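Sample entry (134 residues):
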Amino acid sequence: MSLSNAQVRATVAVSDLDRAREFYEFRLGLKAEPGGPEMVRIYACGGGTQLQVYASPENAGTATATVASWSVDAGDYDATVDELIANGVELVTYDGLEADDRGVHAFGEHRVAWCEDPDGNVLAIDNGLSPAEM
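Predicted structure, serialized as tokens:
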């Protein structure tokens, strides 16, 4: 068995699971899987992938780069970004990178919106175009 054939799960440390639950479920619109340990939430995402959010106050928000990314179909991208903004998600812009008035960065046809969860973990939503398609 090779890891290239295995599913991967993004894992995010948070300081307060209830506060994180509000963000991931009500702002991002994810649905928690039933069961599991008390201090962990598992969210099913597309293609059999998952996002695991777990309580770890000492490690929450310490990553300095993107911890999880979602690739949304290019045809649904703008509506998805608009829905996130309507749900109170604030997009993050970065110095030296051009962004539109909503905060979406463009790299040719590849578009990325970054946001942070309540602990400052960086999350990305892109328009699903791989480098080969650009």
